[in-house]
Specification:
The chain is built from 13 helices and 3 strands. By secondary structure, the protein is mainly alpha-helical. A 3-stranded antiparallel β-sheet has the order 1-3-2.
Length: 261
């Protein structure tokens, strides 16, 4: 246990440094998880020392936060799954954790970014009504989901600055990426072109450089001198293919008739 204690203290130092030393934390976490497995604390069963469980829970919580800061979503998923034992089976035995609801909220937003709405509501049903209504880490993703369903995308955009924790902004940015692509598809279908300024406003780009990069990814034609974006005429492109097929089919049918006659 002495080695585990030293690794734990090393993790805390790396995590609390400004900014957090993510590489050091990741290396230390991997060593700590092996130690927790050997000590029977990663998936605790039977009689265990509560103090050791508190430390194990904190290690996994820090791991979940480090994963988000490192943009490693699969790692976050694994840490969150491992934390469920501590948040459910030992919820009455262990003292409350200040990181529990921030991490639960991050998981809810993650489900939104993956469009797993059914899982979002199932997860939400496992929480108390008071927590959903009053805890800012839970009410934030709840509001995001409602605004998404309403199509109130400007509220989702503004929510980035109202995030209860810095890590939440990563998922809100991911949501905005999905929203931009949906709006872009509507613009392509509804307009032949748009002024750059209007396109930037509709797509929630605070500056033109972000819009130009997005336009390049979508294959749009940008006329800087005219200040417009021209969308691909996808409808016309799709009509050309059936015409050619119909012509070819008609010619083939005519040849067959000639052979019959």
């Amino acid at each position: 246990m002495t080695q585990l204690k030293d690794l734990y203290e090393e993790l805390i130092r790396g995590f609390n440094s400004k900014p957090s030393d993510l590489n050091k934390c990741t290396v230390t976490l991997n060593k700590l998880k092996l130690g927790l497995i050997e000590a029977g604390l990663l998936l605790p069963k039977g009689d265990v020392i509560l103090g050791d469980l508190v430390v194990a829970r904190e290690v996994l919580e820090i791991g979940a936060i480090v994963s988000i800061r490192s943009r490693d979503i699969p790692s976050f998923d694994r840490y969150f799954a491992q934390l469920q034992t501590f948040y459910t089976d030992y919820s009455e035995s262990l003292p409350p954790s200040k990181r529990e609801y921030p991490i639960r909220g991050l998981n809810l937003i993650r489900l939104l970014t993956q469009n797993r709405i059914a899982d979002f509501h199932t997860t939400l049903e496992s929480l108390d009504a008071d927590v959903i209504a009053k805890n800012p880490f839970i009410s934030h993703p709840v509001n995001l989901e409602r605004w998404l369903m309403e199509g109130s995308y400007s509220k989702v955009w503004n929510a980035r600055e109202e995030a209860p924790a810095e890590e939440y902004k990563f998922f809100v940015d991911s949501l905005m990426g999905t929203i931009r692509n949906e709006i872009a598809s509507c613009e392509e279908a509804a307009y032949e072109s748009l002024p750059l300024k209007d396109a930037a406003t509709l797509l929630f780009f605070p500056n033109q450089s972000g819009l130009l990069l997005f336009a390049k990814e979508r294959g749009w034609q940008v006329d800087i001198s005219a200040g417009t974006i021209n969308f691909k005429t996808k409808g016309e492109e799709k009509m050309e293919i059936p015409k050619q097929r119909l012509i070819s089919a008609s010619l083939a049918y005519a040849r067959e008739l000639e052979q019959i006659v």
